[in-house]
Amino acid sequence: AQKVTQAQTEISVVEKEDVTLDCVYETRDTTYYLFWYKQPPSGELVFLIRRNSFDEQNEISGRYSWNFQKSTSSFNFTITASQVVDSAVYFCALSEAAGAGGTSYGKLTFGQGTILTVHP
Amino acid sequence: EPEVTQTPSHQVTQMGQEVILRCVPISNHLYFYWYRQILGQKVEFLVSFYNNEISEKSEIFDDQFSVERPDGSNFTLKIRSTKLEDSAMYFCASKPGQFSPLHFGNGTRLTVT
Fold it and tell me: What are the residues facing A116 on neighbouring strands?
């Protein structure tokens, strides 16, 4: 069975600090997808990134970067120079590769989430 | 940018009542999902729907739940006889193709009293 663990329940930082959110996953599949979603106080789920299991290249998008290490089954997320607007719950999620009809790709297993609070 | 739209944003119902949560997926999307999030907990998969039928469902999605795509634009989740433990945020999601990421709606907060 798939499992996603976000060991950090809450993180509190001061604006401009860098912060890394940890994500460790378990799966028996050789092909899978990893995601990060942001849930701001308003409640919606905002897609941030997806990665497939064959692509271990790290990615940077503005202040956000992701470090995917298959050897340690981790997919960590770093926010550089954090801002108050980054305050949210961040979820890591895992999906097995497309099964019949391609819907398995949409069946996500979420971690418990990390509450990030950025203080001014 | 097109969005997945969910209505209502908040619904309060009494235990034992039936509720229908409504979603309008993005128009060219073919795959539809419901997820739920009990307050303070993680988001959980409920059901996926493709080609006018359920493709997969979780153990949470028991006989009191059903989904329907009645008219080609709406996608509904019905809870037949609500229980207190059904109180949660329910998210609808859709995607256009097999390898596309999910687009989530803003959620409907269901409160069962």
Answer: A11, A88
Q: What does the block give as tokens for B80?
A: 């037949």
- Residue A73 to residue A53: CA distance in whole angstroms: 10
Question: At B22, which amino acid appears?
Answer: R
B-chain residues near A45 (CB < 8 A): 43, 91, 104, 107
Which residue of A45, A100, A112 is in closest CB contact with B104? A45
DSSP conformation class of B73: S
- pLDDT tens-digit readout, B77-113: 999 999 999 999 999 999 998 888 899 999 999 999 9
Residue A31: band (very low, low, confident or very high) from pLDDT cuts 50, 70, 90: confident
Residue B25 to residue B68: CA distance in whole angstroms: 13
Classify A71 as helix, strand or coil. helix
Distance between CA atoms of A22 and A11, rounded to whole angstroms?
A: 11
- Round to the nearest angstrom and report the end-to-end CA distance of chain B: 36
